[in-house]
Write the structure tokens for this entry.
Amino acid sequence: MLCYATRAEGIGGRLRAEPSDFIVRERLLDGSIADERFPGKGLSGSGGFLRCILVKANVDHFSAIELAAKAMGCKPRDVGFAGIKDKRALTAQFVTFPAEGVRAKGADVKAIDGVRVIPEAFVGDRLRPGSSAGNFFEIRVRDPRPDRMDPMEALEELGALGGAPNFYGYQRFGTVRPITHIVGRALAKGDLWGALMEFLARPFEGEPPDAFSARMELYEGGDFAKALSAYPRRLRFERIALRALNRNPSDPLGAFRRLPHGLRRLFVEAYQSYLFNRVLSERIRRGLGLQFVEEGDLVSPLAADGLPQGEPEPVRDPEAANLAIEEGRACLVIPVFGYAVKLSEGAQGEIEREILREEGISLKSFYIGAMPEASCAGKYRRALLPITDLRCERLGEGDLKFKFFLTREGYATAVMRELIKPEDPAGQGF
């Protein structure tokens, strides 16, 4: 994220001093809203799946799914969910479990290691990506700058723009260890060993000292057995890969395949996200619009959930395309690079092709031949993120609270970045 769409000075401040400073509540397409305060009394409905509200605080998605599956008597792959939620937050989302296994464990509220599973209703279908309409956010900004505490100018700019740049948020890449996209880049270039060592061994100064020193030793020495004994137990996925390497030091693919499928794919998706952010940044820097289009831009019809649908078409008649956008029937999209997408034309297409050349890859690079299950076909993403019901409240301590709703795939940190304009994203809670 190399630029801003708004010119107002940032209010400063920090996010996530406490998990409850960053609250996320999921809404499904059927209108159901996950709420961490749901008491879990009485089960309605019928069907082969139990839908629950999964509440977590300071727990990553994959660990939360594993803990929930254990509590409810099934395997992680059996857990259905609509989206991945932030680790450094208090989040409430819906998940489904096969009803047969749940009946053996009992359909009461389960709590384990920072995760709560609250049964809500029996349903006929498993939750899948795409079942979510979006998320409600309540975000507290602590210690905003006293001379910049009024966010109204930036709020008005966002309103006039029609939303915020639809960047992927910092958490997509890692804030303390921003290596997720770097691992994905190595995979896209066919470098399995390079990808694995980036994941396991590259140290970052912001890490806890025990993790930093263990990674540094592996980075310099390459002793997997020694690393396995040195890595803290909280680094679960690294230890899983290290155990595999300890058994077979010449098999990086085997080590990767011991990791959850979703995590393997997430590496490549993070690289896609990094490239999308570069492309979107360059579009803003060159003065191309985020809402309205020029010849060669890609435009997609909008589905009822506010997301692009169908195959986009390059703009031939900007006037007609912009009328459709103004009437809420279509939107400007940018390709998230993958082996099955097509690039834009015109000025936007030049940006996309330049960045692919600079990275030394092609669209076909996103088919990972050694690990096809991590391959990514690509998709099309809105350039502009609409923001619904954006409100600001002043709290008694001088802090500010922002409330708003975003469609699924939208990052709240992309909105807050335009308001705060952080000088130290990691230090300020991004």
